[in-house]
Amino acid sequence: MKKILLLMLFVVAASALAQTGSAADRERRALRFSRTRPWHGDYANTVRGGPVALVVPPTAHLQRKMGWGVAQSSMTPIYHRFYRNSQEGMMAIEGYPFRPTPIHPSHTDQFGVYYVRGPW
To answer: Which of 51, 56, 73, 85 could form a disulfide with 60 if both were Cys (CB 3.0 to 4.6 A apart)?
Structure first.
């Protein structure tokens, strides 16, 4: 009985340590990803004429992308973070060829609004 209790305690402690480590790893991966890839996609918002950064709380880590079709919905991580004192800014995308929103969009990516996590 003591061995089972000790084993259960060890499993709980190991899972707690793994969860704290995974948050730091997730943040490290997000930073690496955001340095090498743009925060926006291929589509421009119709009203703004360019992509729009929708700032979400810094604790948000996943976004749901939905498509109008079979098996086109997915959960993807939110890698990029909005910084107030950024050197390039969120709209420094001059010359990037954006596609307009289609007349009949088939995916939420085609609206030109992209999630970006807020500052701490």
So the answer is: 56
